[in-house]
Specification:
GO molecular function: methyltransferase activity
CATH superfamily of the largest domain: Vaccinia Virus protein VP39
CATH class of the largest domain: Alpha Beta
Shape: elongated
Mean pLDDT: 93
Radius of gyration: 22 Å
Protein name: 23S rRNA (Cytidine2498-2'-O)-methyltransferase
CATH topology of the largest domain: Rossmann fold
Number of strands: 12
Strand order of the largest sheet: 8-7-6-9-10-12-11
Keywords: Methyltransferase, Transferase
Pfam families: FtsJ, RLMM_N
Number of helices: 9
Structural class: alpha/beta
InterPro entries: RlmM_THUMP-like, RNA_MeTrfase_FtsJ_dom, SAM-dependent_MTases_sf
Length: 309
């Protein structure tokens, strides 16, 4: 999570320099309004209202706590205090009667029972979910947990309008390194017809959709006989090799858009990320819109989206 300095001039400059869409390793972007320590358990609301005095009205309130084992015990406090804080904010004129997605959001994040951060996020320059995490449930039919990575990528890296336009029934895609079929399964649920490339087996129910052709081939050497709408790839391989192969797909016109993962080394992840993204953009040889993010369901990797510019 990226917290911007509360100094207005500095925060404005950072806002311009670091738009949320360009951040790879941050799940959320907030402007810090106040840090409150030593909160009295008998009255946490009064110092919050005092700290927010002079702020413009917010559209919604998000009560948060760290997404960790240590932070889980704070969930009950955040929930119960939120129920009391909302009417107090409305009475003070700081919160509308109903959620308004056009106005900034107020975030109250507890890191301890007596320690909280107050922050603001702009709907157009932040993630819409608490803590920046889209909560996805593992579908019982999903062939593997990797399905959650592609589902999250489609929600995080594409806008609503882009999903409606770019994921339509009958579109054609290739899934490189598809076995056991998690990403292929996700694409079929969006109506796409998929060529699944892998020497390993796919789950039978993925093939039973009638939307999948399984070819036992090497994802690094196979190429489609005709251009496709999508290519996706979650192969375990050196990130630079993956970036180069993905660039070939875009350069040769084998697909219009792509989503792929880059498995990062344990050290110098940002340096490797920069190198791979620059290599991919350069070797693709065409104007592209490139978005990259380490998703909540990713591990030591980032997910990259490439669209025609």
């Amino acid at each position: 999570m990226l917290l911007l300095t509360p100094d207005p001039a500095d925060a404005d400059a950072l806002d311009r320099a670091l738009p949320f869409s360009t951040l790879v390793f941050a799940r959320q972007k907030l402007r810090l309004l106040a840090e409150l320590r030593g909160l009295d358990p008998g009255d946490r609301i009064t110092p919050m209202l005092q700290a927010l005095r002079g702020q413009a009205r917010f559209g919604t309130l998000l009560m948060e706590h760290p997404d960790s084992d240590a932070g889980k015990p704070l969930a009950g406090l955040a929930r119960s205090l939120g129920n009391a804080l909302r009417p107090a904010l409305r009475k003070a004129g700081l919160l509308g009667a109903q959620d308004d997605p056009r106005l900034p959001r107020l975030h109250v994040c507890f890191v301890a029972g007596d320690h909280a951060f107050l922050a603001r996020s702009l709907p157009a320059d932040s993630a819409p979910w608490p803590l920046g995490i889209p909560r996805l449930r593992m579908h019982p039919d999903a062939p593997s947990r990797s399905a959650l990575k592609l589902e999250e990528a489609l929600r995080v890296l594409l806008t609503d309008a882009e999903r409606a336009r770019l994921l339509q029934d009958g579109m054609r895609a290739a899934d490189l390194g598809a076995a056991p079929g998690g990403w292929t399964w996700v694409l079929t649920r969006h109506g796409l017809r998929v060529t699944a490339i892998d020497n390993g087996p796919l789950r039978p129910h993925v093939l039973d959709t009638g939307q999948v052709q399984h070819l036992r081939a090497d994802g690094f050497s196979w190429q489609p006989p005709q251009p496709l709408d999508w290519m996706v790839c979650d192969m375990v391989e050196q990130p630079r090799r993956v970036a180069e192969r993905m660039a070939t797909w875009l350069r040769e016109g084998w697909c219009r858009q792509a989503i792929f993962n880059l498995k990062l080394p344990m050290k110098k992840r940002w340096q490797e990320t920069q190198l791979c993204l620059e290599l991919f953009a350069r070797q693709a040889g065409r104007p592209l819109t490139i978005r990259a993010r380490q998703l909540y369901h990713d591990r030591e990797e980032i997910t990259v989206l490439a669209l025609p510019a």
